[in-house]
Amino acid sequence: MPVTNVSHDIDALTLTITAEFAAPRARIWQIYADPRQLEKIWGPPTYPATVVDHEFAPGGRVTYYMTGPEGDKHAGYWNIISVDEPTGFTFTDGFADADFTPIESMPVSTNEFSFQDKDGSTIATYVSTYATAEGLQQVLDMGVVEGASQAIGQIDDLIKG
Question: The domain that contains 153 carries what CATH number?
């Protein structure tokens, strides 16, 4: 499992996941920049993602839905804030309805994904910041740590293939 550390800080409103991959930073970057590769790792194995729109540039939007084991669909979106290939990108991530309209009652996070070279491998740091402690706690209660860890774990198989 590539995830090496998970921590959350209710006072700082953050969830931080660190992972290490046996691939160069440019390869890890490609996974997020290519919607077909992103689909293979964004949702956990039991909730695979389908990327609908993928404008991976500042001001762009990525829309997706994850399909559960019973066929249930859960939509979400990214609003891209910045892109610095291949070192990282920032975006807001939120829950959406079937038409990709944000669900105002659900938490939105601001995310910074960063990638650093380490002796031919990549250290990825995923930091999600929430507006409120209640929003962070809500996603923790929904299983975000387990789901994100499983999703990130799929990157190893993708980079081997």
Answer: 3.30.530.20
